[in-house]
Write a structure and sequence with these properties.
alpha/beta, 9 helices
Length: about 325
């Protein structure tokens, strides 16, 4: 599988604090990943872990502090204006709020054909509206509705229609099932899978819903404080997580079978601030298996397609005894 998106050493920094004592901190602290053509890559982690910031940086919506982003062999970090416009046609973004990302002053028909006007593509608006709405499972009559007249699922489908309007090669979907009923979530995921197969799309999906990843993602990365702590094929990570943080996330995933026993891993609720990162392994302040080495030495993520940044990966033996949870 050839590489479509290549990200190396990406960092995004912000300044925060009182006006006279503003401090610089890294919301994304050096990540590497590739996305192949036709592949779905998922980013998962707690709120505030840097997932959305990373996605916006990849798409050129957020300036990066270091590193590089290459799309289809072209280095795109630092591009802007007219130079970035062809890239935006080929790399679409679906934003987190399905209704809030749609202009309340525009009809659905105007919304789904807006990309044609922005990129000056000669097309029949009525024909394209009908085609795009049909692709996402909406009747052509929806063209005259306004966003406030749509349900969450319908608004999300309109967002999908906008994203695929110009036949992109990559879609970045930020929480595509957020705020939707479980049954509607399944419909949206099935729609994205169908469009990926039909159009040959690659996708980057940002989510904290692990059921989403199990359903659609080929590979995944688990983020903690702006870094990847584990990456690899989704099926392998779900079957045998190597990093304690990944194991804790999976153990907290809701289980529909009430009779199935679950060994939940309890963590202290509050993650450290990226403005005050712990020394050593940044997860050691919450890790049930942390040893003295973890507080002084940062682990390296080693390996090929499967990596985990942990001194004592699960399943590898030589693991310190688990400490009791503080909560």
């Amino acid at each position: 599988m050839s590489v479509l998106l290549e990200v190396r050493g990406l960092e995004v920094a912000f300044r925060a604090g009182p006006p006279l004592a503003r401090r610089r901190f890294k919301a994304v602290a050096g990540v590497d990943f590739d996305v192949g053509r036709g592949e779905t890559f998922a980013l998962v982690g707690e709120s505030g872990s840097g997932k959305t910031t990373l996605a916006r940086a990849v798409n050129g919506l957020q300036p990066i502090s270091a590193g590089s982003v290459a799309f289809d062999g072209l280095r795109i970090d630092g591009l802007g204006g007219a130079a970035m416009k062809p890239v935006r046609r080929a790399m679409s973004m679906m934003f987190q709020d399905p209704v809030g990302s749609l202009s309340p002053r525009m009809t659905v028909g105007d919304l789904v054909t807006e990309p044609f006007r922005i990129h000056r593509v000669d097309a029949d608006p009525e024909a394209e509206t009908a085609r795009l709405l049909s692709l996402v499972g909406l009747d052509a009559a929806f063209a005259d509705r306004f966003p406030h007249q749509l349900s969450g699922g319908q608004a999300r489908r309109v967002g999908v229609a906008r994203a695929i309007a110009l036949n992109p090669r990559l879609i970045i979907a930020d929480e595509p099932t957020a705020g939707l009923d479980v049954s509607v979530q399944g419909e949206v995921l099935n729609l994205l899978n169908e469009l990926r197969e039909r159009m040959g799309l690659a996708m980057v999906i940002i989510t904290h819903n692990l059921h989403v990843i199990r359903h659609v993602a080929d590979r995944m990365a688990v983020m903690y404080l702006g870094r990847f702590v584990e990456t690899g094929p989704s099926a392998e990570i779900f079957a045998a997580p190597a990093h304690p943080y990944t194991a804790a996330l999976l153990s907290a995933n809701p289980e529909p079978d009430p009779d199935r026993a679950r060994d939940r891993i309890s963590l202290p609720a509050e993650a450290p601030s990226p403005m005050a990162r712990p020394d050593g392994c940044e997860f050691h302040t919450r890790c049930p298996w942390a040893a003295a080495k973890c507080g002084t030495e940062a682990p390296a993520a080693v390996g090929g397609d499967r990596r985990a940044a942990c001194h004592f990966p699960l399943g590898a033996g030589a693991r310190p005894p688990a400490k009791e949870s503080t909560i």
